[in-house]
Design goal:
Layout: H1 6-17, E1 22-27, H2 29-33, H3 36-39, E2 51-54, H4 59-63, H5 66-79, E3 89-91, E4 106-107, E5 116-120, H6 123-128, H7 136-153, H8 159-168, H9 179-196
Parallel strand pairs: 1-5, 2-3
Antiparallel strand pairs: 1-2, 4-5
Helix pairs in contact: 1-5, 7-9, 8-9
Amino acid sequence: MGQINNANRIVSVLDRHLTTETEIIVFGSSAILLDPMFSIHLRARQTNDVDIIIPAQLELAIETNEEFWNAIEATNNEMEPDGLYISHIFPEQEIILTPEWQNHLHRLPLEGLQRLRILRPRILDLVLSKMGRGDAMDLEDVRQIVSLEHRVTGKMVTSAELDAAAARATVPQAYRELFPKARKDIVQAVKMIEQSISYRPHPEQDKGYRIGI
């Protein structure tokens, strides 16, 4: 199944407990750790859970999907001895995202899954979702995923792009007090990455380059 980590273990167990084909959208640390393009460079990083976003148009269908919730419960029961779980399942209106976030989802090519299909938001929306708090851990996560995207793909979210996205993002009421400072701090963190990055060839052009993150 590629790079094995706790996130991989959790979704493998969930897949086994599902009885019908099911699609989920993951975010947070698990979104990066489940993406084979990035996870291979994050062998030292782990997470104890998998966070899921429920799109607004699917909220009612998922809420009434007893088979899905039974599979979640069975997964949590099985993984409990290892301290692993799926407990954070958020409606999209509870997360800071761009209005167009669903147009930029990435399907994760995970091997070995029979019924479970997994997608993640683009890096821009993953960074925006950190603006709910913008604490020290969030800032470190932002630095890591923005730098990693640049090192792996040659692309990166710019501070100008991020600030423009934050201006049109949907901000839940619970985060509106913290959002302005979190936005400022995270945009500044990305700006510092821009200033510190010198040109590096795309990995396809330089097979000898190694990720040091």
